[in-house]
């Protein structure tokens, strides 16, 4: 039966310890139906089933959004061929060479943040490093002035915090405020084109780095799809998706890594002594503490999935956090280890799979690697200084606070 376990994805006990709940589901009810919602809501927890949801895009669509409620946002949350075109538009900004070229700049940002943190004897690693770093980086890629990043972080958090909640007025207000700001940034670029004698409706790649900066906002302004320019609604949706998706997940990755290493100080010392463990620590963190616990898909036709009937247009959560701890795939899955093989770690689905694999995966890994190495070298006596708090969104996993000290 799809409801034989009393599981509520939004309940306090699930928020506190989702992985214990996933384990129960995986063992006794791998396809679970949550009845207390406005439409059919399912949770899938076994690795092989999650992979199927992520790779069979003809059956499991993103058209109605990747959150529990229906939302036709389009752009990166669409299906091919539309999704393919929008992904191509941002591909340059997140391409391996472009990301590698940012290493020096990211290192400088980390050093600057740690200089400020080091002036004290204790700090909140979330506020001092894990939160501001990804916002600074994604703001640069998109073209958002760095003076506005605090406001952007607040808007982003407000949109994610209440995903699936009955009252969506808070997220709507935050999204509207962010869109008004972004629209002004787009309008500023248009005026710059006009001031330099370039009609916005015909501007092309020749204006990049001569009249306008080479960033994603400029890209959305000059790009064409099917022989036409994007409209402002399409631009706003795309920019919002990148801004929201590009900061909280990397913030959580960084806090999750340090929490696991510091709760077992021996592991932190091993990483300090051996930089070759940095990449393993990051992948093991992604596996064990998936920053995105899961995202939703919508079935395009009525189906029976592992014996469970699903009406057409059900919302089904591909639960990354459960798949990444499936004992059929990962040995000793509930323990954070630095001795896992690269072959085993490559199986995790923390960044998704297939067409919707996270375009910022390499950038997120690079930020985490630079932050981990810099902290390990500058704070040899770093340790936890209290119990961290969980971030609010039910489908994300990270620390809202991570108190540390080093005196």
Summarize the structure.
With 407 residues, this protein is α+β, with helices and mostly antiparallel strands.
Task: Record keyword descriptors for this entry.
407 residues; single chain; five-stranded mixed β-sheet; three-stranded antiparallel β-sheet; alpha+beta
What does the model show?
- With 407 residues, this protein is α+β, with helices and mostly antiparallel strands.
- Helix content is 48%, strand content 10%.
- The chain is built from 18 helices and 14 strands.
- The strands form five sheets. A five-stranded mixed beta sheet has the order 1-2-10-7-3, with helices on one face. It has a three-stranded antiparallel beta sheet with strand order 4-14-11.
- Helix 6 packs antiparallel against helix 8, helix 9 (149-161) packs antiparallel against helix 10 and helix 13 packs across helix 15.
- The radius of gyration is 21 Å and the shape is globular.
Terminal Cα span: 55 Å
Helical element count? 18
Largest sheet: 5 strands, mixed
> What is the overall pLDDT average?
88
Strands of the largest sheet, in order across it? 1-2-10-7-3
Class based on secondary structure composition and strand pairing: alpha+beta
Topology, element by element:
Elements (H helix, E strand, L loop, with lengths): L11 H5 L1 H11 L2 E4 L6 E4 L2 H9 L4 E2 L20 H10 L4 H6 L1 H16 L3 E3 H6 L1 H11 L6 H13 L7 H27 L20 H7 L1 E2 L2 E2 L2 H14 L2 H16 L1 H9 L4 H11 L6 E5 L3 E3 L2 E3 L4 E4 L1 H4 L18 H4 L15 H18 L4 E2 L4 E2 L8 E3 L1 E3 L2
Parallel strand pairs: 2-10
Antiparallel strand pairs: 1-2, 3-7, 4-14, 5-6, 7-10, 8-9, 11-14, 12-13
Helix pairs in contact: 6-8, 6-18, 8-9, 9-10, 10-12, 13-14, 13-15, 13-18
